[in-house]
From TrEMBL:
Pfam families: ABC_tran
PANTHER family: ABC TRANSPORTER, ATP-BINDING PROTEIN (PTHR43335:SF4)
CDD domains reported for this sequence: ABC_BcrA_bacitracin_resist
The entry's keywords: ATP-binding, Nucleotide-binding, Transport
Family statement drawn from the similarity comment of this UniProt entry: Belongs to the ABC transporter superfamily.
MF annotations from Gene Ontology: ATP binding; ATP hydrolysis activity
Residue ranges constituting the ABC transporter domain according to the UniProt record: 2-227
Organism: Actinacidiphila cocklensis
Pro residues composition bias: residue spans: 320-337
Family matches, as InterPro entries: AAA+_ATPase, ABC_transporter-like_ATP-bd, P-loop_NTPase
Domain of life: Bacteria
Region (Disordered): 301-355
Name of the featured protein: ABC-2 type transport system ATP-binding protein
Amino acid sequence: MIELQGLTKRYGDKTAVDHLTFTVRPGVVTGFLGPNGAGKSTTMRMLLGLDSPTSGDVRIDGRRYAQLSEPLKHIGALLDAKAIHGGRTAYNHLLCIAQSNRIPSHRVGEVLETVGLTAVARKRSKGFSLGMGQRLGIAAALLGDPEILMFDEPVNGLDPEGIHWIRNLMKGLAAQGRTVFVSSHLMSEMALTAEHLIVIGRGRLLADTSMADFIEKNSRSYVRVRTPQPEQLMDVLTAAGHTVVTAGDGAFEITGTEAAQLGELAAQHQLVLHELSPQRASLEEAFMQLTAESVEYHAHGAVTPGGEPMPVAPGQPQWQPQPPPQPPGGPGQPPQPGGQQWGSQWRNPGSGKGR
Ligand SMILES: Nc1ncnc2c1ncn2[C@@H]1O[C@H](COP(=O)(O)OP(=O)(O)OP(=O)(O)O)[C@@H](O)[C@H]1O
């Protein structure tokens, strides 16, 4: 278990991590999400004792990292896959780590097998692709057979097969009862991997919720309808008890009903429809809404053909979320009933630090 209590890190005037309080529990994959510069890496570094908190505390199974006598047997981490001595072979790299941490050398072969690098075990890692480097970093994290695993953007540089592999690896480790904490700035990737979510923005906690809850609250489905007779259709829909939101382009958005029902209703009143389409808001959109106020830098982002942010190498300039589209009610309107801003329902009351 990982426990953060009021964890804060300042660099001069800059508050990188701002009173973070949350717990990462065993048995599930916990996703750690936030836009670039949100403070994910700083948090992870403090967890490993690589940075000291300005205030607050972080514990691994009840102890600070520095208090762990054989830390790699408690927590394994992949922070920067490039932090490898390129002149060493993969096998020797892992053997050095094993020997200096009193880990039996037979673990080296085992973890190389687990990550699929057995065939290149005697090759120098400087010739490795980014994806192979990620696998070697993951092998090092697994070496001490720790109960807690932490991965910082582990899918960076992996091809689709590699992404599939690491997704299953993380789920498998969690299924063994381990604590798996994985950072990403890709909501869509986390939706396939994590059961629990911690979302931060500008160092502050924005959400601490189960993925199921996040999906339920954000996969808002509605039916989009366009008609050349908007006033008449509005009257018919309102009389039938539907709540109608008018979109920016004049289309109607109706929640809580099916397209077929709306089509029949329009036909009964001999109203012409130019569009009748079921819609579902994506999780990526929900994540961007939640973190929109927290995005530090806006850039012209590279996206994949599917509209996903393009994965990039650690240390390279990364994709930044763009300001999200206005919610259906128009600028300043909450996209959900109740007048709350997105994300407010997941804030951890214990953190005492909502936005
Ligand atoms: N050593 C440092 N000195 C000054 N500022 C720092 C230092 N390390 C991090 N920061 C700043 O703290 C903030 C949080 O950075 P951090 O790298 O933890 O974010 P992140 O969520 O991991 O981002 P990314 O997804 O881009 O890796 C950023 O504004 C960053 O510029």
